[in-house]
Fold these 2 entries.
Entry 1:
Amino acid sequence: MALRTHPLEKAVTVDLSTGRLALATPTVSRAVAVPAEWLAQAVAALGANAGPLAASLAAAVAADARAMLAGDADPSPEACASAVALALAQRGLGTCSFGRFGDALTLTWSAPPSAEPAFHAFASDLVAAVVSAVTGLATHAAVAGHAGDTLTLFLGSEPACTFVRERAARGEGSASILATLLGATSA
Amino acid sequence: MSADIVARLETLLARVVSRRSAPRTAVAEAAPVPTSPAAQADKPRSVPPPLPRSTPPVEPPPVAEVAPPAIIEPPAEPESGEYGAAVFEDADVELPASDITEAEAGLEPVAPPPAASREPLDTIDTSPVLAVPHTDAPPAPVAAAVEPPRIELVRSDPPPAPPTASEPAEERPPSVEPPVAEIIPAGAPPVKVTGPLVLDAPRAPGAARPAVAAESPAVAAKRQEVLAAFGAAMPATSDLTDEDPDHVETRAFRITPPAAAFPTGAEPVLAPAPVPAARIERVEPPTRTTVLYAPELPTATVSAVVHPPAAVSAPSFRALLERSLALRPRG
């Protein structure tokens, strides 16, 4: 496994004398640090209209991830996970890892800005937009479950994500939802 | 009757008289009377010296007052040939059977000493001891013509083989023993060995023998040296003895014609046979590089052949995502 190195020591520079927070990301030279709860409150306030905000944030994260992949059109799972996780972490959005449950591909988002159900739609749109931008495949995402400060999102087709979202709304666990999905698939 | 026998009879009579006059317990401890005249001259007749005893004195059995029928015990059988030889060398003192029979009428037997007090056979006279009565009976005649039995040792070695007429010793070289004589069949005509044997290459019957080139002085000197070694019956392999199990092989080497070991100039020099290249090699490295974490366990280098799996391209993240995108719920 080859991990791409990225200079993290100067990724975030806090200049208290000027009140500037500089991000040494490939695409962002300056950032405004706000509390994570403010993002969660903004998302909750937007509701169904939080899509453009998620798309805007996902574009910035995907741009950083692609820059870390150095133009690799077909990266390995490890490289892709490293790039996406680092792009999220540089903005204080937490980190992530990928997993497989059978053929179902999942993304575990650790330490997201919020794990509340009002944040699930925004998280799904953000992750789907980032993965679609990195891989070039139209991908949908749905929160299959959450435990503490961790969100488990299923990456797949729109019908499958709709299936998972309905099951999750009933309070079914992520493993049970994915098992049901795999047992009920007609692929 | 010779004077020697007469002297020995007198010795016997003197011993019997001394036994009857002495106590019964002394009879059992009586020392043997030397039978040879030289020994008699050295020792007094009246008081024989007592012999050392390792066992306590044993009370001899009582002697019956009434003389039972005379029982003459033959001398004890020797246990070994050495003792037997010693006994029968002195057996010329024994009385012939006919004379003993004649003397039985006036003699009374004396009980033999107990077994514990018996002396070794080579120091005691094993001839039957007969008591002589006090009457002035004439001494029993001893037949001098009867030869006592003797044992002669016969050597088991076979007699030396007579020299063969076909191979007189004068015709052989003094240092060359014809080793082929042992392997020649019985019916084969005699072979006259006049010189070193030379093996010829196989040729067609009736074909002329190829000319033999003169051997080099070095080869001839070596040949003479080996022939001298054979003539002196020196072992071919000095480090082996007859106790070694492979001494038979040594003997077999001795009967090999000595000339066959040295090629002559006429013999074709064959190239050495090709040695097969296959051989066993040591796989383990000569030096140990294993770190001993458990000194009580022996170290060993484990060599294994690792077959790497076939180069299977790792699925990319895109491929994994495509498989996940392919999932469709039923209904």
Note: The radius of gyration of chain A is 17 Å.
Entry 2:
Amino acid sequence: MDELTGGERGSAASVAEPVIATRGLTKRFRGGQLAVDGLDLSVPAGSVFGFLGPNGSEKTTTIRMLMGLIEPTSGTARVLGRPMPAAARTVLPHVGALIEGPALYGFLSGRDNLLRYDAADPTADPRTRGARVAAALDRVGLTPAGAKKARAYSLGMKQRLGLAAALLQPRELLVLDEPTNGLDPQGMREIRSLVRELAAEGTTVFLSSHLLDEIEQVCTHAAVMAGGRLITQGAVADLAAGARGRLVVSTPDTGEAARVLKERGVTDLEVGDGRVTGAAPKTSGPGLAELNAALVHAGVRVTGFGAERASLEDAFVALTGEGFDVTG
Amino acid sequence: MSRAERDARGAGAGDEGDGPGAGAVVGAGVAVGAGAGVGAGTGADVGVGAGAGTGTGAGARGMRARKAVGPVRPVSPLWSWGLLRSELGVTFRRWRTLALLAVLAGVPVLIGVAVKVETGDGSTGSGGQGGGPAFFAQITHNGLFLVFAALAATLPVFLPMAVGVVAGDAVAGEAGAGTLRYLLIAPAGRARLLLVKYVGTLAFCLVATLVVAASALATGALLFPVGEVMTISGVPIGLGEGLLRVVAIALAAAASLIGFAALCLFVSTLTHSGIAAMAASVGLLITVQILDTIPQLHAIHPYLFPHYWLSFADLLREPVFWDDLAKNLGLQGAYAAVFGAAAWARFTTRDITT
């Protein structure tokens, strides 16, 4: 964002300023491999932002650039309105992050791990350190295990401790990279409710995940990345609406139905057991009612007729065109 | 502290990472509370202040809108000290560090017992004939010499090896474990973290040397008579003065490790593997020690970090012979400057991918 020059742009412009804004963010690793390619990401303030992408789509490299751990080859990144990594010292105390899983000192207790991370924060008040550590442990339900050595923690407990480290201070932005990895369903639910709770308090949450239903359940906005490029971003509802739904016709006369639909220009036809599906017609083409009439007119016994709404998963697959475990 | 107060003080606490441009952004939101914003200020306040001047129009509404974009908590004044304390805690609570110190403490005990056993069977203390390592012959006459003997025995290999393990692992170990990324996003600051790591390593050098000296002093006092010290120059000095020399020698030995510690820390910034950094550090130590013994290479000897290590013995002369001690300190300082700068250049630009 360009600096404000005075009061006239003032409030209106500043309300819209995104919490994370990148422009042409690019990372080329030594050896010439292009990891992140011209990313223009915009995360609105107060949103729960889902960052989606198949494995290998360089989501983590992007997050590391946002956190100042990796220097971009070109392009700019602004976090909380300030340039990264130049303003890391002022920005990062307001950002809690869990990146590529937790990392702990195994020979220290959970509590001592948090004390260590808190000591590294220049804005953390040593006088309130003990209380804040206790509160963070409590928030993730680790108080009973606080004195236990971290190496004895289960994966889920380590994940919780990592989250506690991100919650040591009140944060403006929380960056969570695959926060439910290694958690049991109960733990996943807890994390989701924690995310909702934090969002309700006004914290912007940037949630990277490959679990679509997770994103659909908690996120207000999402971006999809594949092969180091940003495919799309926007409100989750818009993204799902963007993918075309499926036309579903239930009928015993599947062959005849498929022929009639094809004649009428319906594409991507699939004939199943007692049902024919195809891409829902565009608004410019023949309407649903017209198609139904054509089917009945051709003597097809239609027992069910309708359009299925597209899920985020449909949108995702339509955009990335590949399975989740395929590396980009 | 209320939100508004925090915003206002935040403007004052802007730091060097924050250019004048960013200051202007804050300024718009902070105009109302600008007066309070000076308290915790650092050098970069200039930029922030200028912003505050132009932002009058934005008013309180602007401040609320800025909520998400950068109120700054004041930097805790004792922060670096807290980080250093945490670093020392992490270093000295590690089982490995304690094991190293235990081994180092064992060396003087081993020497003391060996000398005692060897001289206890009737052969006299002069049986050493000067054939053994430095100071061994004098131990039976004066337990204080066990300190000098133990330091002379551990300084070439054991002590620097221990330093190589601790310093080599300092950055690489944290990178390998992934804890480095969390320290950096805390944000500890790369230069500051490196400095804290170096100071922590130096603290280990000092503690390790003192452990050897203290263990030697205790063993020596227990097994042998303690009294007037006969200096290398042949002039005896009193026990009190002798003890002072012991302390000075321990400090000189610890200071001998300054250069090597910086070298190890630099190696540590090159890799993600703590083991690799430790192995490289110890390998370097052995290589340089070998180079230092090859007479054909005498031209480079004065530039090798271990070359003047045994100069601490000059503290046992009367009067003290300072030349080599000063050269040693100068050389260690030069190594610390060169490899400290190299480590800084490497660490502050490195991509943290672990």
Note: Chain A is about 35% helix and 25% strand.
